[in-house]
């Protein structure tokens, strides 16, 4: 059936993404129904939303809610009930907007990460269509007051798409540029500390760089891992020296079309994209790694976010389905990986 899904790479709109436009009409209805049905093996949160597109999703274990970022700008929360263990069911929740930053109107809210020791949310804002503006902001998780707003790029800086963010133990943030293929390091008070670049971040072939650096996670051993969407390259970057290394993928698996990433344990990360989920393991401190599992969720919804809730991996999907005027149904669903 894969061949019936025409993945067209749109040159311009990076994330709307990923520029993956599926020609839905070419997917037989039975296939779509099947994709939705396959979810029934996993735990699903459905939520009613006022937007068609959602990008990031992170579980907030203190306030028992998912925080989701809006492509139209803003952040919403989806409060969920108690954990139901392994009971397979669909829980319907409501999205509530917690803030829209008026100073960033017209931009999309992209990657987000909770900086727990400082009780704040780090959120990337970007001009997804024009690729002319990107910023990182921090917001207090209790009051939603903005702590800082740092401009990363503007109209004179060439094409950029600030995309995803990771945070280290000292509160430094690392923001990926999915267009310019670099990483901004922003200090705990919002000062831009450095811009990390490397020839390894650019690949041969125009299409290989359509969507560049994307998902990023900080590893407690002092480095971060970052994935390059189109090429599937995985990098290990030393947080202090900023040395960039390619993680050698062994075992034949690929990380092409990867998007968001989460650290599951010191040896394992989960990555979203196409397929919806992949699990990657390293046994040697991320010099080499292997794709050890995958999960095929509803492909027409496109998994862009990944987060851990109560020890389980949940994926956030970008495309909602139309419900009634100004309402869309979205899902955040548990991923159950099959061994590769
Ligand atoms: C994004 O926000 C910046 C800062 O306020 C603004 O200058 C820019 O015009 C916005 N971008 C769009 C596409 O509206």
Automatic annotation (TrEMBL):
It comes from the Eukaryota. Keywords: Membrane, Transmembrane, Transmembrane helix. SUPFAM superfamilies: Calcium-dependent phosphotriesterase (SSF63829). The keyword Iron does not apply. GO terms for cellular component: endoplasmic reticulum. InterPro entries: 6-blade_b-propeller_TolB-like, Sensory_adhesion_molecule. Coiled coil: none annotated. The chain crosses the membrane at residues 16-33. PANTHER family: CALCIUM-DEPENDENT PHOSPHOTRIESTERASE SUPERFAMILY PROTEIN-RELATED, PTHR31460. This is Uncharacterized protein. It comes from Stephania japonica.
